[in-house]
Amino acid sequence: MRTPTSPRRALISVAALSAALLTAAAVQPAVAQDSTTRETPAPAARTEAAPGTPAERLIVGYESGAAEATSNKAASADAEAKGKQAGEDVGFSRRLGTGAALVDLGENVTGSDVADVIAEYEADPQVSYVVPDRLNKPLATPNDTEYAKQWDLFEATGGMRVPGAWDLSTGSGVTVAVIDTGYVAHTDLAANVVAGYDFISDTAVAVDGNGRDSNPADPGDWYAAGECGQQTGSNSSWHGTHVAGTIAAVTDNTKGVAGIAHGAKVSPLRVLGKCGGYDSDIIDAITWASGGTVSGVPANPNVAKVINMSLGGSGTCSTATQNAINGAVGRGSTVVVAAGNSNQNAANFSPASCGNVITVAATNRSGSRSYYSNYGTVVDIAAPGGETRTATSDGILSTLNSGTRTPSIENYAHYQGTSMAAPHIAGLAALMKSANPALTPAQIESAVKTNARPLPGTCTGGCGAGLADATKTVQAVKGGTGTGTTYTSTGPVAIPDAGPAVESPITVGGRSGNAPSALQVGVDISHTYRGDLVVDLVAPDGSAYRLKSSSTSDSADNVVATYTVNASAETANGTWKLRVQDLYAQDTGTINSWRLTF
């Protein structure tokens, strides 16, 4: 699982504080590294590139010991003081669920005005980060009943092989938070919808006549020509309802479409309205969805173990958003995000480039990357997203509404987009969590990727581990054909600092046939900077299975985890090895022990 940038590894340039930094331009941090040394620590405060329009608000994270980190009064006084220094009208707006402060810059600020305020915060050693409050948009490419039309679930070529998984799990007991445009009533989904929340704080964006409240109903996100920075207008998308239907539409009810995790519940969290939605609202939605506390919002009665975000914009993941995601994952929620629809490298988009998420690219009916889908090394997995330019029926069919502006009659429609691909993986994650409630977000991601199949078609630029296979993945986490027999290593093995790979063996004998499709590999490694390490399982025939990649930003200690490996192609008997290599100088470690459970 990718992790966020750490000051110990990253050298981030903050010299360019021009208006361009605060617009949709993707400004990349300068990162210097080699194979043997670490970089100079980054400055305590930093700004980051962001999508959307020039900033009207900033998200400010304070060091934990600062009074402003916990006191709204102190944060308000600090905002006022910094505003005076910069010659601008700056005010504290509210506290986000992560503890960061939302700061209002007033109206009609220019890029240089914003840069002046940022410079004041940046110069304060008590500020750990300051980022613009970015505007995000839905990531669907929509156009305008019926399981037989859901090729994305069952077709041999481009489908995700979902029906076989239903014999093992339907997602019961799991709530999936859909952070999106909210929910418009639909009888093919209503039985699986539980209470959510409307997190849109800006009434102009909300359209429903008020700010935050407990009603996540989608009033429509249409806009007229000339609005939202667009020359032409657009009808309401009902985007969140389409996404929710793919995850958990009611199934076996003699109507409409089937949901991937139709035994699960969906909690709609409204963050996108007219022209999109702000990072600050999304951050609070992520926090609340996963059971965190958000000031002024009642406790969440339907904590989600899976979060779907089919939204985003250009610019790399900000520290503010990353902190919210880290908090959600730390509370046990798996976060699934869309890669984006710009036919570009997903590393330049957020939240696709965030750490601790499953980033999903879109494939078409023939199993190739959809022409619009983003790609690249930050993509973890691919799933059906459709491609309606070939035929409307080649899109993803789900629940919708016929209203062009406000809600009208419920219907179904084919959409295309990575917004449609992401809920396929969110649904799969719900199936997995229901089948094995002990799974962590890291284990869910690992199993999804380990059990993927090669793309039937092509993917220029990289589509992660391949096309997700729901049946194989749920079988793997459910236990497959394993017997529960465990084999353990005999002694510790030292890991040399920035040295060659070392191996710890386990000899397996007396078994018949191949290893199971859900071979459990338990690892206990002591190390003072686990991001230095690459960890592989080596089968008796020499085939290597990557358990953990290196990361220049994972500064935590130790690797204590259980990985699920599809080893069904390997003969069970023989000598298996855990291979570990330390790629960077400065920290050392030991393979304390490891085990194989068949």
Can you put this structure into words, describing what you see?
With 598 residues, the protein is an alpha+beta fold. It folds into three domains: 115 residues, no CATH class; 342 residues, Rossmann fold; 112 residues, Galactose-binding domain-like (Jelly Rolls). Helices cover 18% and strands 24% of the residues. It contains ten helices and 27 strands. The chain has a seven-stranded parallel beta sheet, sandwiched between helices. Strands 19, 20, 22, 25 and 27 form a five-stranded antiparallel beta sheet that branches. A four-stranded antiparallel beta sheet has the order 2-3-1-4, with helices on one face. Strand 17 and strand 18 form a beta hairpin. Helix 5 packs parallel to helix 8 and helix 6 packs parallel to helix 7. 56% of the residues are buried.
Keywords for this entry:
single chain, 598 residues, alpha+beta, Rossmann fold, Jelly Rolls, 7-stranded parallel beta sheet, 10 helices, 27 strands, disordered N terminus
Strand content: 15-25%
CATH topology descriptor of the largest domain? Rossmann fold
Say how many strands there are: 27
Termini separation: 24 Å
Q: Can you identify the CATH class of the largest domain?
A: Alpha Beta
Total helices: the number is: 10
Radius of gyration: 24 Å
What are the segments in which pLDDT stays under 50 over at least 5 consecutive residues?
A: 1-53, 140-144
Mind telling me the CATH superfamily name of the largest domain? Peptidase S8/S53 domain
Oligomer: single chain
Q: How would you describe the shape? A: globular
